Amino acid sequence: MGDQWWFCLKHMTAEPESGCPNKDRMGPYETREAAADALKTAADRNKKWKEDDRDWNGG
């Protein structure tokens, strides 16, 4: 397995495997760029999930 990257919620930055404890971060991600975009990715997924939920509930 290659290097993994994480987004640190404490420092609001992408960091390598050897960064902060997992309780303070999101990931892992395959690239530093993907980790840096973690909050946007989560927001996009939440939006899509809410839209899908409305479809299922008829609204």
Q: What's the arrangement of secondary structure elements?
A:
Elements: E1 5-8, E2 13-16, E3 25-29, H1 32-36, H2 38-56
Antiparallel strand pairs: 1-2, 1-3
Region (Disordered): 37-59
Protein name: SPOR domain-containing protein
Biased composition (Basic and acidic residues): 42-59
What does this structure look like?
By secondary structure, the protein is an alpha+beta fold. The protein has one domain (5-56). The protein is built from two helices and three strands, in the order βββαα. The chain has a three-stranded antiparallel beta sheet with strand order 2-1-3. A hairpin with a 4-residue loop joins strand 1 (5-8) and strand 2 (13-16). Residues 42-59 have a biased composition (Basic and acidic residues).
